[in-house]
Amino acid sequence: MPDFSEAIVHAQSHEVPWPRDPSADPAHWGVHHADAPPFNVLRGPVHARGGVSGVVFLRGEEAASWGEPARADLTFSVAKTYLALLAGVAHARGLLDPAETIASRLPGIGFDDAHNRAITWAHMLEQTSEWQGSCFGMPDEVEHHRRVSHDPKPPQGRKGERRDLQAPGRYWEYNDVRINQLSLALLHLFRRPLPEVFREAVLAPLGGGEGFRWVGYDDAWVEIDGQRMPSVPGGSHWGGGVSISARDQARIGQLLLDDGVHAGQALLPPGWVRRMQQPCAIAPFYGWLAWLNRDGAMFADATRESWFMVGAGGHYVWMDPVHQAVVVVRWLDPARAPGFVTRVARALRG
């Protein structure tokens, strides 16, 4: 059995420098502070967090854990990948074809104008949609020129500074407003709250779900078939989002490592997980709401087949098909993530 103790000590020694209670020091918690007023505020609830924690699965079995792996904590943009899983569930149910335009199936929810009606589900999943508009009062330009740690392109402008849009599929940009618009579209497809669908279709079959919550903004509600439902965000940029345990994150990672099949049951359609790992043509470091390591630029010591779910606040779910490993680490200082990956990779290689 590999010895992960060096990696665990490294992680526990380098906690993200955010307060554990967001109410104690709100000016140094979260990522919304980087937005221009009036968008630099929380719009949904947040809660106190635990310390550094994590889990390692090897060949489907838990090989190591540390911290509080059963604690359900906010996971920020790891939730984006969960939207890609829900899109797979919708595809299996005949509710979407990735190549079709969203407007052709869901008119009247923000995809009808001359620019947006060319946007496909695939564009939204690979973050090349260039969707324009306002989602629950948040305009897309709030996230123009957004930079995140694993985006290799040089800065193009100041965050929130409006830029000229390109045709859908022609420009890659990490943009939480557009992700929230994707979530709204999926809600209209399922016609049920996405947290319910995710719990029933993914978490429950995996034996998970304890403490799981997926919460929307205070004012992000829609009425469908006479029922008032929350539209949940694909992260916690402005609050809300997914709270989940490290073990459940590892279970989801194992599902992806197993090509969407658990205990003989296909929870995702054939080929969906492989398609999630296909590099975006104009952003080969990214697949469908997941980060790729094809050239080693993300983490030099991880295998080139490795891929990742990543969230602000130091959240990483690492799937390594070569070693049949799933590695989850939470609340790790992102500046220290390469050192953690190096130590885990060394242990996996033996």
UniProtKB/TrEMBL annotation:
Domain of life: Bacteria
InterPro entries, per database record: Beta-lactam-related (IPR001466), Beta-lactam/transpept-like (IPR012338), Diverse_Enzym_Activities (IPR050789)
Keywords in alphabetical order: Hydrolase
Chain segments annotated as coiled-coil in the UniProt record: none
Ranges where the record places region Disordered: 143-164
Domain Beta-lactamase-related, first and last residues per copy: 48-329
Source organism per UniProt: Ramlibacter pallidus
Claim: Cytoplasm is one of the keywords in the record: no
Any Pfam family matching the protein: Beta-lactamase
GO molecular function, one term: hydrolase activity
Name recorded for this polypeptide: Serine hydrolase
